[in-house]
Amino acid sequence: MKKIIPNHVVIIPDGNRRWARKNGLKSFQGVLSGGNYNHLKSLFDEAKEAGIKYVSLWGFSTENWRRPKIEINSVFSLILSNFERFRADLAKDKTRFRHFGRKDRLPKKLLEAISILEKESKNFKDFNIQLCLDYGGRDEIVRAVNNIIKDKKKKVDEKEFAKYLDNAEVPDVDLIIRTSGEKRTSGLMPFQSVYAELYFCDKYFPDFSAEDMKDAIEEFSRRKRNFGK
Fold this sequence. Notes:
With 229 residues, the chain is an alpha/beta fold. It has helices at 16-22, 27-34, 37-50, 69-81, 83-93, 108-121, 137-150, 158-162, 210-222, and strands spanning 8-12, 54-61, 95-100, 127-135, 175-178, 197-200. It has a single domain (8-222), classed as Decaprenyl diphosphate synthase-like (Undecaprenyl pyrophosphate synthetase, 3-Layer(aba) Sandwich). It is 43% helix and 16% strand.
């Protein structure tokens, strides 16, 4: 029997700050550990090896602006510090990159880096990485509605509405993985994840390994999905 593999996996990397406190570190150091490039690359490589085509990582939510400035800056600085390495790997591995979320509040340098990555990788199809920055599910829906109004649409069905969402070119979510033991999705892709399977891991994200990723995929393959039938 052929193993069922999720096409689109979303990771909610929770528990970075609690991991830091547990290890006697500053909260921003947990962010740096969880977002370490080698750590993320190992998860992406495991997903690709398993046959997954799309992996989305929630890096910064619309609510995260309330956090201490040092934590916010550490997220953005971490992305920029890994820019050239990530850029080279996208080209080498024929991986497409997309940004989901608002673009009006992110730092200019970060937006420029995102634009370069999206432009240079737009023709790649082997694997797809989506980074959710300044992303919130409700915010995404509100932005979509405002753009529909702007386009003066008088009637919209589900298919048409989906075209206005950030993931218009990306299939709906099959599996949501959340670390740290918290059992909620926190509004991540509410429209796109109505039939997503949920997998909760007790480990804090810095400790979530490629082997844990493999376990989540294996668990997904054992579940039966009826889609309301």
